[in-house]
Description:
This protein is an alpha/beta fold. Helices cover about 35% and strands about 25% of the residues.
Amino acid sequence: MTDRTLIRGADWIVAWDAKHRGHKYVIGGDVVFEGNTLIHVGHAYTGDAEHVIDGSGLLVMPGMINAHAHTHRDIHAKGFFEDLATHQMWMTQLLEYTFVLKGDAESCAAAFDASVCSLLRSGCTTLVELFGYKHRPFDDWVGQVAATGIRASLCPMVASGYWYTTSGRDHHYAWHAGEGVDDLEGALELIDAALTHPSGRLSGMVGAAQADTCTERLFRLCKAAADERGIPLQTHAAQSVMEFREMIRRHGMTPVEWLESIGLLGPNVLLGHAIHIDQHPWVAYFEHKDLERLARSGVTVVNCARAFAQWGDMLRSLGSYRAAGINMALGTDGYPHDMIEEMRIAGLVSKVASGHVDLLRAEDVFETATLGAARALGRDDVGRLAPGAKADVVLVDLSHPSMRPVRDPLRSLVYSGVATAVRDVYVDGVQVVDRGRVLTIDEDAALDRLQAGQGRAMARVPDMDWAGRSADAISPLCLPVEGPDCSGS
Ligand SMILES: [Zn+2]
């Protein structure tokens, strides 16, 4: 008895086109998977199957890949962080405010579960989760990630130091005695536990926190560990003006130039953001060689358009980086964790940044969210619907108002679609979303736990802030409050 599922007579399928090495539409076709593997994608399937799903009115597409997210952490700042600015420190809110709201272990676990629900419901089937190894909020990451049903790459980040401010006007680095090298062994053990997890859905990625908080020695050790294991490495680089200026001060090189000079860049390396390269107008630098450095290295740049749009900043641009030959992927970074919204914002911001309507098209955005990210992970079995690939399959309801009228459904999904149009999701052949409801996690309970956790995090803000301010003093509610309880938190 086989465990075979047939999606019969789908109106539209986004299928792998081996000849052109990209996605193509199949109009009116079948998708079949057995266990965790796709065995047929195309026109009518003549075999039998235990489970048959009526594909009429559906778009069947590969699950998307979120190549950069901190799902357990940043969502604690929802409703607090979005309009904060410290104008004199060039995007200092990244350095100053991200870390005043810290969830405790219980709350981070809830945040992770709730965020994974959001990702699954938006058609994301693979998550790259980055977290600080030294300050990991709970020990059983591997078990918790596996229990959600999502496919995931765990990226425990090591760092030689960290940022802090003493006045809201300055920016300092504190360095660990061991340069973070002493954490690397434990981080690698965690990665190895993911790689050998019996679910087969977990993998690992070596994480070096940021270009300006890791020493050359730590970067070289991380790269060697990634190369030795045949896995990727991810770091944050070129994400703020301050980082750019700091690297010029230390090395006389841009962040990208320095990373290239120490041998870090390569096809198995992902750079979170790479926004503040030498052609970004805010850094006032005039060489304009970073784009070529990124392209020739084979590195992947992960664009988190929503997160940076919030700070008035953007990659300039997703379309032109692609045109330069750089492999691109998408990430949701902080929150919200909605890959359909992330695609739309990435696409629209690229149009604004480039001034071109068609330099980056809907199919290109979807490519970054699927095949581009899969290349970064070194995989040809995810991000595509093809026989032999993993059964990570998303069924989109074409009768959903956001998808109608139906003419070119993938384009409509990118520019007009919403997560509630996603009906069912399968990861590794297992159904994880049924008619918009996540089957593997109690989403309401996770959100309730997160709500309580956010309250605890807000109460701790005075202990975390350099000036001892309350959450409400830093970020008042957006409207005047009338009522007996004006605490707002
Ligand atoms: Zn990040």
